[in-house]
Amino acid sequence: MAGYLLKGCAAVIVDEGNGPDIRCNVDVLTEGPAIRAIGAGLDNADLPVGTITQDAAGWFVYPGLVNTHHHFFQCFVRNRADLDWTKLSVIEWLDRIYPIFSRLTEECFYHASVTAMAELIKHGCTTAFDHQYCFPRQAGKRLIDRQFQAAELLGMRFHAGRGGNTLPKSEGSTIPDAMLETTDEFIADCARLIDAYHDAGPFGMRQVVVAPCQPVNCYRDTFVESVALARDRGVRMHTHVGEGESPVIEARHGMRTVDYCADIGFCGPDTFYAHCWELTHDELRKMAASGTGVAHCPEPVYLVGAEITDIPAMSAFGLSVGLGCDGAASNDNSNLMHCIHSAYMLQCLSASTRDHPVPPPADFLGYATTGGAALLGRGDIGRLAPQMAADLFAIDTRRMDYVGTRHDPLSLLAKVGIGAPTDMTMINGRIVWAKGEFPGLDEARLFAQAEAALATVEF
């Protein structure tokens, strides 16, 4: 695999480890999976044999986005009026949605994953973490194997969160029996997946995260055993925390969720939680002290958040923050670039009620790049610099959409928002989306296959 010379980029967001910097009128040279150089006049240097030159005039080039929380399988329940949060209570909604999830087949999980990853890639996401916690008995245990297959098809850098639920509904969970596993089943499959797929090496395309769904739907020993396995194998941990369940956990265990997880050891620099909108400042400080990170999902806040997540406080306390789309049960798209804009605008909306100022717009791009990389424990992605992974996307700004905006590429995504797909997305040195197409793939065929799988679901 040779590489590409992106010639004459209007602006490149470069970060050599000291924060982002805008470089104008420069070239980007990739070689294999990595960035070789960024600078002016690189076409005058000795280029590797086989380098393909791409005219990048007018392009703003950004580091690839890193999605830190999603539920791909939920793509098959998007935009349904009968599942509208605004017309149902949370309990009514859960009672309606989980039986649907329990009827999904292995093929549904595969095609939903292709669907979500394709949309992510179109909008600049190059690394995706998915929290796959739904394992209906009739669908079998190879659902994450199929997700890795989908990622390979599209060229996505994929971190699989092997989730699971172990507490029956009769003991207070919201999970139908058809979706339950034992702790032993869950841990055994986590171990199998780590052995089969986890690649912790530089530019690794596959990693596994031990990710029990949430404390409210699992036995305590599920989390205890998760900690033991993850620490033994050197992989990361993830779960849902602080999305309205803390009073339930306190009633069951005598402590709120953050303290409950800390008591088990499910916290630390190798752990990140999704959501965290209901947490107190004291709880956020505890998380910061332990090094536990947050995957902030801004768009579900519109539907299910009782309040807007306090990102200014998290920033002030030094928490590691990434961004996630979340699943279609609470966000009907898989567009992480749109989440950057949503996250910033939500914080501006609530600024007058906060103790800390809204972080600058450029920080929100950082949450979706270096922040996400930190949550996933990756030092090789999330920023553009020599020797980093060639994960990037480009926007041709020579359009009416961008008149008056081009002086500040760092703030563009947060303040203006980007509505259209990228002009090019590259992952690990390979162009996976360009000129409105997935090179080598027939999108119409992928669409037809996904629609056929969706048609098998009984709503």
UniProtKB/TrEMBL annotation:
Keyword terms: Hydrolase
Domain of life from the UniProt record: Bacteria
SUPFAM superfamilies assigned to the protein according to its UniProt record, in alphabetical order: Composite domain of metallo-dependent hydrolases (SSF51338), Metallo-dependent hydrolases (SSF51556)
Keyword Transmembrane helix: no
Pfam families linked to this entry: Amidohydro_1 (PF01979)
UniProt domain Amidohydrolase-related: residue ranges: 60-432
Family: Belongs to the metallo-dependent hydrolases superfamily. ATZ/TRZ family.
Name the record gives this protein: Amidohydrolase
Lineage: Bacteria, Pseudomonadati, Pseudomonadota, Alphaproteobacteria, Hyphomicrobiales
